[in-house]
């Protein structure tokens, strides 16, 4: 008989509005963001994974980090403080060129 396991998702929380077991300080938005960004899965796909699935993914990512995390490290992106407003940072021509891209500086309206 197959073992039934609950998913990771916020939908698996108790109906009283608190996480079952107090939530253990889990930041669901960050957890979902990591899994979705690294895998391309949809929210409903992440809702279905178990803690065992998450542990396997995390174990793999410890040795083979997701590309977005390696790029963040390479570009030197720092974690913002909770009170900091998001920076309106745009990539410079040098940033884009360093990543192997090109920049078209022509005005496309004329």
Distance between the termini: 68 Å
What does the main sheet amount to?
none
* Proportion in β-strands: under 5%
Order of helices and strands: HHHHH
What value does the Rg take, in angstroms? 19 Å
Number of beta-strand segments: 0
Query: Which spans have pLDDT < 50 for at least 5 consecutive residues?
Result: 1-5, 13-19
Task: Offer a quick outline of the entry.
With 110 residues, this protein is mainly α. It is 42% helix and 0% strand.
Describe the structure.
The chain contains five helices and no strands. The protein has a domain at 23-81. The protein is elongated and about 50 Å long. Helix content is 42%, strand content 0%.
Indicate the topology.
Elements lengths: L27 H12 L3 H6 L2 H13 L3 H9 L17 H6 L12
Sum up the structure in keywords.
110 residues, mainly alpha, 5 helices, 42% helix, disordered N terminus
């Amino acid at each position: 008989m197959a073992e039934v396991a609950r998913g990771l998702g916020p939908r698996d929380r108790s109906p009283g509005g608190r996480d079952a077991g107090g939530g253990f300080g889990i930041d669901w938005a960050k957890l979902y963001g990591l899994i979705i960004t690294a895998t391309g899965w949809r929210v409903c796909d992440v809702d279905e994974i178990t803690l065992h699935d998450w542990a396997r993914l995390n174990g793999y990512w410890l040795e083979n980090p997701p590309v977005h995390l390696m790029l963040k490290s390479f570009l030197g992106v720092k974690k913002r403080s909770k009170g900091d407003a998001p920076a309106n940072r745009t990539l410079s021509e040098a940033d884009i060129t360093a990543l192997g891209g090109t920049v078209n500086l022509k005005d496309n309206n004329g």
